[in-house]
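Throughout this chapter, every protein is written as a compact record of paired, labelled lines. An example of such a record is reproduced below:
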Amino acid sequence: MKKTIYLIDGTAYIHRAYHAIRSLSNSRGLPTNAVFGFTRMILKLMEDKAPDHAAVLFDAKGPTFRHEIYNKYKANRPPMPEDMAVQIPWILKVCEGFGLPVFRQPGVEADDLIGTLAKNARAAGFSVVMVTGDKDFVQLVDADAIIWDPMKDRIIDLAEVEKGRGVAPARMVDVMGLWGDTSDNIPGVPGVGEKTALALIKEFGSLEGVYEGLDTIGKKKLRENLAAHREQAFLSRELATIRTDVKLPEGFAPEELRLPGPDDGRLAELFGELEFRQLQRDFPKQTEKAAVDYKTVLDPADLDALVKILSESGEFAVDTETTSQDPMRAALVGLSFAVSAHAAWYVPCGHRYIGCPDQIPMDRVLSALKPALENPNIAKIGQNIKYDWIVLARHGVRLAGVRFDTMIASYLLNPTKRAHNLDQIALDFLNHKTTTYAEVAGSGKKMIPFSEVAVETAAPYACEDADVTLRAARILEKAVADIGLSELMETVEMPLLPVLMNMEMRGIRVDRNRLRDLSAAFASELCRLEEAIHREAGEVFNINSSQQLGKILFEKLDLPVGKKTKKKTGYST
């Protein structure tokens, strides 16, 4: 069986990813849309094809040999947008993290590097998959070389080319000589489109054949255009032809492009910086797992022992497991505690399912734990501890001594970051991938209440929550102090929690009559403004329609046009 090599058109995919995904950046303002789209494409390649040999080819800066023979080549292309350019180094890091060899060569386009590698690979006995969405590569398709576009999940092979275009792949450069390529500013022959170019090459076999049989072409205007632009047609074919004879450096022989496999640690760090949260979870840093001591408390004697440990500790982390994300509706299912790293207890008291083990009754659990939980001299640590505070208060326990909240600390360290949940905190500060709620309780229609999760499944999950919260708190507390925000944390953020908790539990009184009056006033003001806008425009139109608004602003009122919409079908308003 032949080995297969995947040759990735990196330049094309950067542009496609950039334009396919807009307005994506991390909390530091770094644009990440092109990096994200490119990464997803690489992941699809890795997951669907699992390549043993591959390389990513990029255009190098500066002119190429095509510019030397035609100085208007690609002259219609604007400079690379700045927010795309700043992402290139990150894309190269992504390639490095996946172990993908990367190559650029001055004076040569990625197309020519791929063409040369494809030829060399076929000669070395490889099958070739050109990973691209660029139609120019059709000319290289043969029995041993195909195109795969992962973004459209489309394969173009020899049969597809001959069926869809009616000419052999190698003759597509003749078609391009006549048709040209507006994207690369390859002129072709004026008045000759794709359909006409294909028909001519089908009839005459080649560009040379077209000119040899020029006198037999019946359409006068077409014949005159072909005759007048003969040199331009052959120049266009030369510009469109992908070279397969580029001199490559040592180390880029196909058999040397074997992939070592991804570096999960490097990718985890990279995805953390880029704030690709799911990808960060998919590639956790490979750290040595510490042994954990997680205990399930089902015996009253064990509960008493736990109470003694908590009462004698100076601080502990606490977490509740419940049946709802709404603390005012949640029923308590269990509590977890951690006093030291890598050790924790889970006290189930509300699991209800067939075959469930006997649990200590909830009133007995809460009665035993209440003195420690309500002791203001024992510091309590939690993740979004306001939630647990409300749940416990509704079950008759008034939590006291709350000292630190890891979610708030994470927010203080990076307020613009999108996620401050425990899973993300564990990744960012402990290099630890936690068991997610969905992994124990399901998701979507398959999600079950936590009360129906088996105790033996729930216990390690709940213990991990408390353990990770305690360990993360120690790192976060130092990080908050290092940037001088300890006072803010201690004198503003933490004291505000019970205030917010009481507000949530008591609710807020609403003056419905006043709100109705405000609504009527706003509606009246909107009508007045709409009438004023219509007067200014001199006609009635739908203000909420961006197309109608664009015509009024930029055609009727002749305001300066900023830019067109993404599909170039209207004005950006």
User: Anything to note?
Assistant: The chain has 24 helices and twelve strands. Residues 139 and 172 are 5 Å apart (CA to CA).
